[in-house]
Design brief:
The complex is a heterodimer of chains A (about 220) and B (about 350). Chain A has about 220 residues and is of the alpha/beta class. Chain A contains nine helices and eight strands. Chain A has a single domain, classed as P-loop containing nucleotide triphosphate hydrolases (Rossmann fold). The chains are: A alpha/beta (about 220), B alpha/beta (about 350). At the A-B interface, loops of A face β1, α2 and β8 of B.
């Protein structure tokens, strides 16, 4: 995948945004010199990008997130440092947006700067095994709500359909039709299909743009 | 597999409730159960149901009281401090013989506590919680699938016995995601001739009330209710046994503590240690008899809990002096690791 300067990940909560954000940032660091990852989640006090902060430090990735993340304080605050994502254009950035329209609300204040720079991809993370996005139409409903709340139109789709530990190649393949329908109906390209890395060899020749994920598995 | 979905425990409860015919949800947000309310807010309008965010937990439980009086399948959900607030209304429901589902996705306490998982509302859930002589049926799931399955079961039991039923989960159960089959065992709700649904001038009006000012009558109501409770204790106990047959040490644990303990039991078995697990699924009625029988053979019991040791009292009552009862616990939002439980199996927990 070609990366624009800012890659934003949004979608239904529990669709896999945070995990993909971490993985994309790690990958991006292998092809770009300066990489930052930003946690914009204001709705979920658990399962945050910050869980991977040690990995970011090791890799030399700049992490920007609320000091309240993982503090168990339920405070939806964002750090002023987040403005550096739009101000300092020497960085390639991955932005992890909170789930649903409620989470995307935090994006609003950065949207004008991101849109005027016009060097971004706003990617919709879809998991067709999630109960409220089981088909293209319900996914589009969530998509529209997020665009309305966040103020940035989507430019592409990531198909991250999985059933947790029970995901196998057939499970992923069974969602390709839905992903295509979502792509057709929304007019957006499927940028990536993300799967747990061990599944990549079985799917490599069946799905274009497959991207293997190393799962964050840090239960605190 | 294709018909499975990937759900959070909180979502599984909400969807299962809807499938069970619950069309009324009243609640007030609190971490770590807010996804139940969020899910209901999205789904209820689409199925012609009611989602209402009340002005407080106390208001929400009294709305549950109202909808239950009208014969509806109805629920509320909260986490520990919020359930304390609901306790008055729960007692009123018990005193008015009203069915309904209360979900407690526990967090560390006391007071406002924290947002990490806990099981420290065990006493509150199983010993009444509110005022007066009453019980709730209390069910403790240990997987996202069970969150769905036992939500359906909870509505059935509530209607069958005309009493409130509680799902006692914890932050882990609410937040974790697992594949779930929503092919659930749904039975239609029974007729409710006692409900205040309007007389059509064809019958005497029904009265739902917990006020009873004549002590002789109130005593009679209490005795009748306790006959019902005795019947439930005989017929509705649910538990799981794991490798208990030849076990010299038996762990008693529910919910997330049981999952952790299962790993520890499996690890100990690999080392040749004779240990098993009894997992109470209903915390009230408690599986007293199965533990008592196990105490005829086992030498030692370990109660594994995410609290300062609450269920251990019921384990001790069941064991009744026949074996040693020890505690292996974490509190305040911490979860014991399989290693800690294994250590307790090998070298003993606290007594």
């Amino acid at each position: 995948m070609e990366f624009r300067r800012i890659t934003l990940l949004a979608g239904h909560y529990g669709s896999g945004k945070t995990n993909i954000s971490v993985n994309l940032a790690m990958y991006l660091k292998t092809i770009k010199e300066k990489v930052a990852v930003a946690d914009l989640d204001i709705v979920n006090p658990y399962f945050r990008t910050k869980d991977s902060i040690e990995d970011f430090e090791k890799a030399g990735i700049r992490f920007i997130g609320s000091e309240y993340a993982n503090s168990n304080l339920d405070i939806p605050a964002l750090p002023q440092e987040l403005y550096s994502i739009t101000d300092d254009t020497s960085y390639y950035a991955v932005m992890d947006i909170g789930g649903d329209d409620r989470g995307a609300l935090a994006l609003g204040r950065y949207a004008p700067a991101i849109i005027s720079e016009n060097n971004y991809d706003m990617l919709f993370v879809a998991n067709f095994f999630r109960p409220l996005t089981r088909d293209a139409d319900s996914a589009i409903e969530v998509m529209k709500e997020i665009e309305y709340a966040g103020g940035i139109p989507f430019t592409g789709i990531i198909n991250n359909s999985n059933l947790g530990d029970e995901t196998d190649a057939d499970a992923v393949l069974s969602t390709l039709n839905k992903a295509k329908e979502l792509s057709d109906k929304s007019g957006l390209p499927i940028k990536l299909t993300t799967v747990n890395r061990p599944l990549v060899p079985q799917l490599n020749n069946k799905i274009p743009n497959i991207f293997g994920l190393d799962l964050q598995n840090k239960i605190r | 597999m294709a018909d499975k979905v990937l759900m959070k425990g909180n979502e599984a409860i909400a969807e299962a409730a809807i499938l069970a015919g619950c069309k009324h949800y009243f609640g007030y947000p609190i971490t770590p159960q807010t996804e139940i309310a969020a899910y209901m807010a999205k789904r209820m309008p689409k199925i012609g149901g009611t989602f209402l965010q009340a002005e407080s937990e106390i208001a929400a439980i009294n709305m549950v009281y109202g909808a239950a009086s009208a014969g509806m399948r109805v629920m509320t959900s909260s986490s520990s401090p919020g359930v304390s607030l609901k306790s008055e209304g729960i007692s009123y429901m018990a005193g008015s013989d009203l069915p309904g589902l209360i979900v407690n996705v526990q967090r560390g306490g006391p007071g406002l506590g924290g947002i990490q998982p806990s099981q420290s509302d065990y006493f509150q859930a199983t010993k009444g919680g509110g005022h007066g002589d009453y019980h709730l049926i209390v069910i403790a799931p240990d997987s996202v699938q069970e969150m769905a399955d036992y939500t359906v079961k909870a509505f059935d039991l509530a209607d069958k016995y005309r009493m409130p039923v509680m799902i006692l989960a914890d932050g882990t159960m609410g937040q974790m995601m697992e594949p779930v089959s929503l092919d659930l065992d749904i039975k239609p709700a029974p007729e409710k001739p006692w409900a205040t649904t309007g007389t059509n001038c064809e019958r005497k009006h029904n009265i739902i009330n917990s006020l009873s000012l004549v002590p002789e009558e109130l005593e009679k109501l209490n005795f009748e209710r306790y006959e019902k409770y005795a019947h439930i204790q005989e017929t509705e106990v649910m538990y799981e046994e794991y490798m208990t047959e030849d076990a010299e040490t038996i762990i008693v644990a529910f919910g997330i503590a049981a999952r952790v303990s299962k790993n520890a039991v499996a690890a100990a078995r690999k080392e040749g240690i004779k240990v098993g697990l009894i997992r109470p699924i209903t915390l009230w009625p408690f599986p007293t008899e199965v533990i008592s029988k196990a105490a005829d053979k086992a030498k030692r019991f370990i109660s594994v809990e995410l609290s300062m040791g609450q269920m251990i009292e019921d384990v001790k009552l069941a064991v009744n002096g026949k074996a040693k009862v020890e505690l292996c616990n974490r509190a305040g939002g911490m979860i014991p690791s399989p290693e800690q439980v294994l250590e307790a199996i090998k070298n003993g927990g606290a007594e």
